[in-house]
Amino acid sequence: MRLLLFVLIVLFAYLFLRKLLKDYQSGRKTQETDPRHMVRCAYCGVFLPEGEALTEDRNNFCCREHRELAKRDKN
Ligand SMILES: [Zn+2]
After folding, report:
1. Contact 54, 60 (CB under 8 A)
2. Which branch of life, at top level (predicted)?
3. Which residues of the chain register pLDDT less than 70?
4. How much distance in Å is there from the Cα of 69 to the middle of ligand 1?
């Protein structure tokens, strides 16, 4: 009977730790893709939410025009 109790405690501890780990991982994931994270337009320098930015060659742009202008300036 004591063994059964021990097994149950270990099982609960395992499930609890697994839940903690899962919460930690999902929390970190949402932080990485946080739409409120601000990035800077590589052309005009304005800050905008990462979710609204256009990304090309690891540069962020506030609009399609600036993406095209930056590309033209480079060439
Ligand atoms: Zn811009």
Report:
1. yes
2. Bacteria
3. 28-35
4. 9
